[in-house]
Write a structure and sequence with these properties.
- The protein contains 7 helices and 11 strands.
- The chain has about 230 residues and is an alpha/beta fold.
- The protein has a single domain, classed as 3-Layer(aba) Sandwich (Rossmann fold), CATH 3.40.50.880.
- It has a 7-stranded mixed beta sheet with strand order 5-2-1-6-7-11-10, with helices on both faces. It has a two-stranded antiparallel sheet with strand order 3-4. Strands 8-9 form a two-stranded parallel sheet.
- The model has no long low-confidence stretch (mean pLDDT about 95).
Amino acid sequence: MTDTQPTTIVFLLFPGITQLDFTAPAQALCRMPGAILVGAAANRDPIATDSGFAILPTHDFASAPQADILCIPGGHGVVEALRDQRTIDFIAAQAADAAWVTSVCTGAFLLGRAGLLAGKRATTHWGYTHLLPLVGAEWVNARVVEDGNVVTSGGVTSGLDFALTLIARLKGDAIAQAIQLAIEYDPAPPFAGGHPDHAPAAITAGLKARVYDAAAARMESALAADG
């Protein structure tokens, strides 16, 4: 018999979130038997994403239920979220009783600011991995890294890998594989260049210069500041 015991999955929402960091794992996790998805933000106002549209939270911090799985997405808005003590306090309070504490992309740094990555192996988007020691974490070059009940994943699309990995842990490989099939997650990208380990060096260098050198510097400044 399929295990349909309720599992409450709380996603942190904040302005400037990368929508796929949230929506990719949500699309897989919502199909898990017993899943109850919650999008929690400081208030119930629409949350502006990085894609030009907004997401409507289901709860504010005060009304959000206790998570069985806490998921912290990333995005350029993480820099401001790091400076918001209400957000950090919410993460810490939810994590205290969550069975699983997880992140996608630069959401790892919000876990870190809440003290949840100290001494942990972790990953994040490739443009920021050198900053993980600032939150006490050891970078592992992998799309999904598990350390105890803490699961971190790399940039953006890796959130789908993390979700399927966790579903397999909770419900078994067959259910995870069925969900993967249902959403037709069968990657066949046009280029073998989704990570610096595989991308042409010139492409990586150009993207770093245009986007990630400055973005990582802003992240480093926010991490160096008091919360």
